[in-house]
Write the C-alpha cells for this entry.
Amino acid sequence: MNTTLTHQSHTEVLVPPELEVVRMTKKFGHLTALDDVSLHLRPGTFHALLGENGAGKSTLVKCIMGFYRPDHGDVIVDRHSRTIDSPRDAHRYGIGMVYQHFTSVPAMTVAENLVLSRYETSNFINWKQELQALDTFMETAPFQVPLSTPVSQLAAGQKQKLEILKQIYLKARILILDEPTSVLTPQEADEVLGLLRETVTQGRLSVLIISHKFREVTAFCDEITVLRKGKFAGTGLVKNLSIADMSEMMMGERRQPKPVHKTTHLQQNPILQIQQLHAHKDNGAEALAGLSLTVQSGEILGIAGISGNGQRELVEVLAGQRPATQGQILVNSEVYRSTRAEMYRHRVYTLPEEPLRNACVPHMSVAENLALRTFDRPPQSKAGVWLVLKMIRQMAAGLIDTFKIKTPSAETPVGNLSGGNVQRTVLARELSSERIQLLIAANPCFGLDFAAVEDIHGQILAARNQNVAVLLVSEDLDELLKLADRITVMSEGRLVYESAIAEADFATIGRSMAGH
Amino acid sequence: MATEALGWLGVPLAIAAGTMRGGTPFLLVSLGECLTEKSGKINLGLEGTLLTGAMTAYAVSYLTQSPWSGVIAAGLAGMVLGFIHAWLTQQPRVNDVAVGIAMIIFGSGIAFFLGKPFIQPSAPQLATLALGGWSANASVQEALRISPLFIIGVLLAPTLTWFFKSTRWGLFVRAVGDSPDAALAMGISIAKVRMLSIVAGSFLAGIGGASLSLYYPGIWSERISSGQGLMAVALVIFARWQPIQCLYASLLFGGAQALGPALQSIGITQGYYLFNAAPYILTLAIMIATCSPNRKISGAPGALGTSN
C-alpha cells in the first residue's frame, strides 16, 4: 500500500489547491483576536503573513488548521466552503502546518518519526519495505535528511527540514509555516526557504509563511498579507513593495514616542556593566554571544529585539537563574554574581517576564510574596531567625494600598490573582525599597490592559527619575520608544544597534531587529 | 553439598547458577519497569507487585496443585496493582514516586496479610529444565537446572526490543514517553498508552514474583524479596532503558547476589554479610556513577517522571 502511494505522488503533478479565508472573526472573551480578516493564497505561490506580535497571525492560521473555530467567516478550499474542525480535517484538504516548536520525538530516528506521523500505519512495521519507500520519497523531496539518525542528534536546521518533510510526506499541498526560521541561522534559513521556493516555482506546492524577517520576505515570497492588531492592514505583491512600505503596513504610521516627563540628571555614573557575557540556552546552543553594555544611573536602557534572540537568557543570568559561561557582570564596579547578599548590598531589583513563574511562589499569600525580599531582615525579622508576622502584614497592607493591588485579602495565594495584579505585586515588592539602584525589567506589560500598562510605565519612569538605573528588555517597540533614554537592538545574542532615543531611526531599528 | 568436590572451581559454577536463579526476578521486573518507564511513568510499586506475585503464585499453586496456574495468577494479581498505579498516577497533580511508595506498602501489606496461612505448607514447584545432563558431576547438573521463567525472560528481552522498534504500539509507547506533546499532535492517547504499559509491566513483575516463590528460593516468606523490586528499578537506569541491557544487568545483579553463598559453600565465611550486601552496594554505586546535576542520562525517556 505504501509503495503505491509514494509512487503516485511523483507521477501526477497536482496543482495545489486554492485557499481563501473570507472575512474571518475570532473572539476570545472580550478580546477580538481577528476582526474581519481575509486572505487569498493562490495555487503555487509563496505567500507571507506579516504582523507584529499579537497581530493575530497565529490565530488566523490556527483557525485554518481547525484548532480554533472562527466566530464568523469561511475557509474556502478550491472554491468550496469547508468546515475544518481538526488538523486531521485540514490534512484531508491537503493543508499541513509546521509549528514554531518541533513536534518530532527526539529519541526516535528520522525514519521512525516519519512512519509514526502517518495517520494510517499497520500494526507491524516492515522496516525493509518502509525504508525503501522512504528512500524513494527522499529522492523527490526538496531536501534530504539522513533517515537513520536520531532526531536529538540533528542540528536545528535539519530538524526544521524534517518538520517540513513530514508534511510533504503526508501529501500536504499547502504548507503553513509558523516562523519557521526563528530557530535557524540565516544560512540554514536561506537553504530551507530556497529549496521550498524551488518546489513552489515548479508548481508542486503553495506556502503560507508567518515571518517577521523582511529579508526573507523580499528574497523568497511572491505576495504578502499584513495584519495589524487583529485587523487586515493590506496585501500586495512583494515586487511592488519596498521594505519601508511593508514596515509601515505592519506598524501603522510611524509613531513618535509620547512626551513623558523625564528629569535630567546632572551627574550620572555607571551602575551595571556587562562585559563579553556568554550563556547557553536550555538545549546547550549559544544564547548570549559576547554581549556588552553599560547602564548609567538615572537612565533607562531599552533592549529591543524579536523574542528568542537571547533576551530571556540575559535576564535569567542577571536574575541568577542561569549561569554565565564566560564574561562578567559588574554592579557599582564590583563583580556581581546574583547572590542574595549582593542583591541586597547593591540594591538590585528584578521584574522578570512571566512573574508568576519567575518571581512569585504561587501558593504563598500576597503578603508572604511581598515580603520575599525583606523577611529575613529587621524589622520583619528578629536576628534573621524569627519572623515578625505583624510587621510583614503591616508592610503588605501598605503596599497593597499604594500599588493598588486588587486582592480579596493579604492572605490570598498570589497565584489566584489576575495577571495584572500579580505583576503589580511583584512591582510593589521590587520598587518598595527606598534605596533601589538598579531595576531590571523584562516585558513588564505583556498581556496587560491599557490602564495597567500606563500605571506600570509611570512606576518605571518614576524610578528612573529618582536616579535608578533601569534595564528594560521588551518586545514592544512603542514601549521602548516611550520610556527609554537609549535604545539598543539585540539579535542572535549580541547588541547590533545602539542610539540615544532622540536620534533613534525607526527604519534602522526595524531592519536590525529583522537581522539586517 | 557436592561443591567441595570441585574445590575453587565451585565458586564460578555457583555464581553462574546463582546468576540464572537469582537473576530471573530481576530480569522480569526490570523488563516490566523498562516498558513502564519507556511510556514516561515510573512504577516504584513493583517491589510490592513482586511480593504480591510471589504470594499469589505460591498460594494458587498450593491450592490448585498446578504451578503454572500460580504463575498466571501472579501475573493477573500484578495487573490489578498496575491498574491501581496507572489510574492514580494519571490523576492531575499526582506524583509517580509518591504513589509508587504507597504501592510498595500496599502491595507488600496485601501479600503479608493474605499470605500468612501459606508460610507453612509446601506448594508444588515449577518443573525445571535439566540442561546439565551431559555432565556426570552432580553439582554441575544441579547448577544447570534452569527455570522456564528464566528462558521466558531471556526470550522476552529481544522481543521487547523488536516491539519498541517495529510495531506501531512500540512507537506509540516511545513517543508518549519521550515527547507527550509530539504524541498528542499525532493524535495518540497518552492516558491509554501509559495505562497499558504500566499494566503490562506489572504483569511481568507479578510473574517475577512467581519465580521467587515457585523456583528460587522456592518458598513463601515475608522476607523473600528483600528489596529486589526496587533494585530492578535502579537496574533499568543502569541498562539505559534497553531491554537487552536489562538482561545483562539482571545477570550481573543475580551474580552479585550469589557471591556470598558461593564463597560460603567453599568455606569462606569471613565477610559473609559483606558479600551478601553486594547487590545493595552495586545499586548505590550505580546511582552515584550515573547522577549529575548538569546533564540528563542518555537514553532516558524525555518525559520520565514529569507531571503530564
